[in-house]
Amino acid sequence: MKCLPFYYREKKHDPKSLQSISGRSNSSNYVEAEMKRSGSELNSLDASDNSTDSLRRNAFPSLSQRPSNLRVFTVPELKSATKNFSRSVMLGEGGFGCVYKGLIKSVDDPSTKIEVAVKQLGKRGIQGHKEWVTEVNVLGIVEHPNLVKLVGYCADDDERGIQRLLIYEYMPNRSVEHHLSPRTETPLPWGRRLKIAQDAARGLTYLHEQMDFQIIFRDFKSSNILLDEQWNAKLSDFGLARLGPADGLTHVSTAVVGTMGYAAPEYIQTGRLTAKSDVWSYGVFLYELITGRRPIDRNRPKGEQKLLEWVRPYLSDGKKFQIILDPRLERKQLFKSAQKLAIIANRCLVRNPKNRPKMSEVLEMVNRIVESSVGANPQPPLKSVVASAEASQGNEIKNKKMNMDPNPDCNWLRMWRPKLLRACRIL
């Protein structure tokens, strides 16, 4: 997935004091100096429009004044934990850098070790460092079951210069994007997809509405939703996150960043960022779950490369709706709940951001679908990625013939606005 070019234009604020529960590294003075120089990297430029619907909080919070319980690691510690950053333990590689699986001593019981994911900043200059600072600021002060936990960080000197790393809880079942890929041998069952939609909505609701300040994720996508051992979904990668608008303002003015196919059209066109930008991205994600397709896929035929444009002709007729369903799923029991999920997606994808629901409202709608689907279509527990891959060797995934509901309810189509897809063509 192609990322939009990005450039930070931030207002500086007081530095954040990063506290350690394992002791400070030798270069923690450098970290604090960088925090002073860079600020929190979350705070916004001035926004010109006054809001008639002011935010809940009375004052714009300073994240630098909030406590943090992050551990501070040294490069030698992380080299030991990752077998000297061996490719044999590499979990993935992205724009930020490489991610490795590691083992570190538990704080509660030093005789035991816990699994972690170690993200090492690539050598691409100050921009990557700003993302690193933002992650430390955000995940150092927020905590929720549907957000990946940041265990600690490292900013140390060694023979290669300054090393910047982030240490997260280990998520053994990888990303949602991985499991939606057509290359995956065992696709996510429908019940699991509904649970993921619910977990992701919970995470965004927490960021938007359940703290005394608001955080806009700004890069919500399937590759940034990770799955733990119990297949609970958690939001990850907060390098592009921003604080929401201050009281009395309607938006944050910022350079446009994010991922093509997910970014809201009004944000792309104006640079005005609101929580409703995340709501749009969530709507795109719901269609990923329904179709098993990526928002933009250049490997498909020309008329099918942009997901939102491809699904449009099939939304006017319930009989045609079946065409957009992921062909790898057994559809007999999921047809109606998929239609209901599409209703929610369409509400999130309304062109005017003011008419999109809040994430708490989206969560309530998703909860109702999950509750109605649990008894009707129970899903067996999935094994871990490794176990599933081993068990599925030699087996072929068979696409079963779809049974179509003879009387589908198509009233939800009114939610879809024609202008929506015209806006999507810029993505």
UniProtKB/TrEMBL annotation:
Subcellular location: Cell membrane
EC numbers, comma separated: 2.7.11.1
Membrane topology type: Peripheral membrane protein
Pfam families: Pkinase
Family annotation (CDD domains): STKc_IRAK
Region of interest (Disordered), residue spans: 11-60
Compositional bias (Polar residues): 17-30, 40-53
Keywords recorded for this protein, A-Z: ATP-binding, Cell membrane, Kinase, Membrane, Nucleotide-binding, Phosphoprotein, Plant defense, Transferase
Family: Belongs to the protein kinase superfamily. Ser/Thr protein kinase family.
Protein name, as recorded: non-specific serine/threonine protein kinase
Organism: Abrus precatorius
GN (gene name): LOC113872321
